[in-house]
Amino acid sequence: MEFDRIILGDSPKANYSTDCSETGINNNIIVCAGTGGGKTMSVTEPRLLNTYNSSLVVTCTKHRIVDKYKTVFEKRGYNVLELDFTKPERCNTSFDPIKYVSNHIDVKFLASSIVMANSRKASSSADPFWDDSSTSLLSALILLVTNKNPDATIADVVEKFRDMEIYDDDDELRTSYDTDFRYLELDDPGNPALAHWKTFKIAPCKTARCIYSTLSSSMDLFFTENILKTVQLFDTVNFRDIADKKTILFITTSAVNPSANYFVNMFYSQLFKELFEYGESRPDGKLPRPVSVIADDFATGSRILNFPEYISIFREKLISVTLLLQSETQLSGMYGNEDAVSIINNCDTYVYMGGMDLKTCSNISVRANLPMEDILNMPVGQELIFRRGQKPLKTKRYNILEDDNYKQITEEYETIFSSSANDKEKNDLRA
After folding, report:
1. How many structural domains comprise the chain?
2. Cβ-count burial of 135 within 10 angstroms (0-12 exposed, 13-18 middle, 19+ buried)?
3. What pLDDT digit, counting tens, does each position of 92-145 carry?
4. Pairing of strands 382-387, 349-352
5. Which residues form the domain of 39?
6. 135 and 254: one domain?
């Protein structure tokens, strides 16, 4: 198997192999830099330039990255997929989580991913009853919908939920779906949907409305009009194909409208789960091809369910992540202090590119054994690279503008972009 290389800085010492058997460490990377700190040009784009064998999943807020590199990867023999949550018409694939549901456990995982997405729940002391009950209600509805229609989509589940009515009754909770579940019980008394439904049904009417309201807030966060549109227009991405053949999947989200981030992070929950299970099913316990995820603005939007646990077992399956953050405080705010520390500890490479966050600066000061003042006043363009088993490397950010490959790709992109812009202007004038 051929492995790619990662360039993380301007020094020759910042050029690393992705072969874990050679390096002895994992390929998980934390990149921490303030807004405009150069994460895209100094880390993401060099990674794209130097990937020829691994499959990639790349989240970005700048669509120019997609336009610039999709032709590059097509020439390298990659299957290029695009999932765009800003303009669905640019997609050539979609993500429908229902398509990865094959048993009761999968259903509960999906329902929990939706209910627990809100980042505030990581540090909340609220009674877990509401989240548990919401998960049971959503699990029941997913199982009801898929039992009636094996080809159902997540849009069908959303519609089923939004059409649900709860009737006032002092004696017993009544809903618009009671009859559906009674028929299901007659046809299939052992169906797990019934247990979830009964958990919801034993609640008093007022409590049931609160459960519905709790779930409704999570559903509204997830399922925007654009998301449901992509699900209905395109075939869902096949995660095993990403590991079987050279594939790059670009996921575009908005930098100013983070509504799709919840859905994207549920995508990652499902991706990691499916890839891990696929690796487990193979004789050697590994994926046939390394899969790397580059997650821009990782600590915004919502949590990835079970991510602190998943990241600790990525290496053995040939999975890796590059997490782009603004600060460690941002990560703690999303996952809570304990899980944030666990995530950082499971990244054997940490690139610090400067910033104003005092907590992050303090931690970097300890890591580098340098005065806090030196970290706070680190010159723009300089960075510190920490690799497990090595002393900290102080270097400059990778100067991609001097990269011959980058120059050629940029020139080709600008030529095509300029031509397209001229054609559009001519068409506008004719109109």
Report:
1. 2
2. buried
3. 999 999 988 888 899 998 998 888 866 555 555 566 788 899 999 999 999 999
4. antiparallel
5. 5-78+246-398
6. no
